[in-house]
């Protein structure tokens, strides 16, 4: 297989160079040997020499992929195999898709799964671990799982009858899901963030599909090659998500940032997450007016150019969440500063658009910058390729075109619209164009009580239980 660390080095900072490496599959067909990387390798069957060939190409839905094949030179062996691996960007966060399957239409939803993807059906305790990248459907996942288990049953009945009987019982449950006799849930978990479940209502929210983004664990980072195992890791290496800092700056401000002329709270030695060479991790505390202290952490490698920025709100967990509603009527409103935390959801009612918590990560930008990020995210997402590609249905294509046209008109200031930021941790911020927020007629800020589900998702319930145990 392809080295995991090599895959992890393909990040946003060097994505631009991919255009010279990955070419559309139609072009590769004409290139033959020129588009291939060939290397001599040992046959896993006869241990004689053979040839491994790799082709880096672009395929709809998958974007950049690496197709590799092996062929043994030994005429008495003839071993041949091939595999497909994802070759694109490792996303800033892992992703979890939870789909409620209720009809044949849901059964036909397409799924893009990377080699890091695990699929489970909690109702029948089925887990399909990641093995290789593929494009499939909900039906395809269940059918393949059924056939794989069924194919070995004759041998099991002979060698281990009790186990075969248990698997027969399980196959009946799996078959009932295939026949859609009752609703069930398909859960897709991918630590690389590169898997996708088709949204039948795109670009609007799908009531049967819930998407959650999460911070990777150290184990996830090691598996993806984003950091070395503990016994191999250089001193000071720590996993941190790469988040975009999208605020608009003047040329003078850009110069100061590039030269590092900012007031820093701490500068710590840190090894680059990409090339592992030594650098410096910087932290600064920024006091946002009418808000709270915000910690901005950044790392930039002078050797390979890798950079990442992380934004965190300081202070304790507030007792209430915050909902900010801004009515945007002109270009001046588009320049308002905006801090969106990882726990903040975004909605634009006029577009019937909702961005769930965790989407786009954390960012300090402007209203216009946020709209740019939304457009970029949707334009590059797998869902867009499902809808706008050759296999996309005409009505879906028309919906997306209308959505992008209206979004562009809003960004240009031609159409008034409403922007709603809802953050259960109150760690997000929208700039008021007045000394007192109450004096800004276009901005309404409301406090709300978090739901039990939100407190569970944020880990607040567990913290309260621990405090109760300690106090007792």
Cα separation of the termini = 54 Å
Reported for the largest beta sheet, the result is:
5 strands, mixed
- Detail the poorly predicted runs: 1-19, 24-32, 233-248
Amount of beta strand? 25-35%
Cα gyration radius (Å): 25 Å
Helix content: 25-40%
Global mean pLDDT: 77
Concise structural overview:
This protein has 472 residues and is an alpha+beta fold.
What features would you highlight for this structure?
disordered N terminus, 472 residues, 14 helices, alpha+beta, globular, five-stranded mixed beta sheet, five-stranded antiparallel beta sheet
Write the topology of this structure.
Elements: H1 4-8, E1 23-24, H2 25-31, E2 36-42, E3 49-59, E4 63-72, E5 80-86, E6 94-101, H3 104-107, E7 110-113, E8 117-121, E9 126-128, E10 134-137, H4 138-151, H5 153-159, H6 161-178, E11 184-190, E12 196-197, E13 209-214, H7 218-224, H8 251-258, E14 266-271, E15 278-287, E16 293-300, E17 307-313, E18 321-328, H9 331-334, E19 337-340, E20 345-348, E21 353-355, E22 363-366, H10 367-380, H11 382-388, H12 394-411, E23 417-423, E24 429-430, E25 443-448, H13 452-457, H14 460-471
Parallel strand pairs: 1-3
Antiparallel strand pairs: 2-3, 3-4, 4-5, 6-11, 6-13, 7-10, 7-12, 8-9, 8-11, 14-15, 15-16, 16-17, 18-23, 18-25, 19-22, 19-24, 20-21, 20-23
Can you tell me about this structure?
Strands 1, 2, 3, 4 and 5 form a 5-stranded mixed sheet that branches. The chain has a 5-stranded antiparallel sheet with strand order 9-8-11-6-13. It is globular and about 80 Å long. The longest helix is centred in the middle third of the chain and has 18 residues. With 472 residues, the chain is of the alpha+beta class. The chain has 14 helices and 25 strands.
């Amino acid at each position: 297989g392809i080295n995991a660390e090599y895959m992890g080095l393909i990040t946003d900072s060097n994505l631009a160079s991919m255009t010279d490496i990955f070419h559309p599959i139609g072009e590769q067909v004409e290139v033959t040997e020129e588009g291939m990387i060939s290397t001599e390798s040992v046959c896993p069957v006869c241990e004689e020499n053979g040839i491994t060939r790799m082709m880096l190409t672009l395929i709809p839905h998958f974007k950049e992929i690496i197709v590799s094949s092996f062929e043994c030179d030994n005429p008495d062996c003839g071993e041949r195999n091939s595999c497909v691996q994802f070759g694109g960007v490792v996303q800033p966060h892992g992703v979890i898709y939870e789909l409620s399957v209720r009809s044949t239409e849901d059964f036909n939803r397409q799924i893009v799964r990377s080699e890091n993807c695990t699929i489970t059906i909690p109702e029948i305790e089925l887990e399909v671990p990641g093995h290789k990248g593929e494009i499939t459907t909900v039906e395809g996942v269940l059918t393949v799982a059924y056939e794989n288990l069924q194919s070995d049953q004759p041998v099991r009945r002979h060698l281990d009858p009790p186990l075969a009987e248990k698997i027969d019982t399980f196959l009946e449950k799996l078959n009932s899901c295939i026949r859609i006799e009752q609703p069930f849930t398909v859960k897709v978990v991918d630590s690389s963030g590169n898997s996708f479940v088709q949204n039948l209502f795109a670009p609007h929210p799908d009531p049967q599909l819930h998407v959650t983004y999460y911070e990777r664990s150290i184990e996830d980072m090691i598996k993806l090659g984003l950091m070395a195992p503990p016994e191999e890791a250089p001193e000071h290496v720590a996993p941190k998500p790469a988040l975009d800092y999208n605020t608009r700056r003047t040329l003078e401000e850009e110069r100061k940032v590039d030269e590092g002329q900012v007031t820093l709270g701490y500068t710590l030695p840190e090894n680059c997450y990409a090339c592992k060479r030594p650098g410096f991790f910087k932290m600064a505390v920024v006091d946002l007016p009418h808000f709270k202290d915000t910690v901005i952490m950044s790392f930039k490698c002078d050797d390979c150019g890798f950079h990442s920025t992380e934004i965190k709100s300081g202070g304790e967990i507030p007792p209430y969440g915050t909902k900010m509603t801004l009515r945007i009527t002109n270009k001046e409103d588009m320049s308002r500063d905006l801090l969106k935390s990882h726990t903040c959801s975004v909605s634009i009612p006029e577009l019937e658009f909702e961005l769930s918590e965790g989407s786009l990560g954390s960012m300090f930008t402007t209203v216009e910058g946020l709209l740019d990020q939304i457009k970029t995210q949707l334009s590059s997402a797998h869902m867009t390729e499902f809808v706008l590609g050759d296999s996309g249905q005409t009505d879906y294509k028309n919906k997306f075109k209308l959505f992008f046209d209206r979004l562009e008109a809003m960004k240009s200031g031609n159409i008034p619209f409403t922007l709603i930021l809802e953050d259960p941790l109150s760690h997000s911020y929208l700039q008021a164009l007045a000394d007192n927020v109450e004096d800004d007629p276009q901005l309404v800020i409301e406090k709300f009580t978090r739901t039990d589900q939100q407190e569970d998702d944020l880990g607040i319930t567990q913290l309260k239980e621990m405090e109760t145990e300690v106090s007792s």
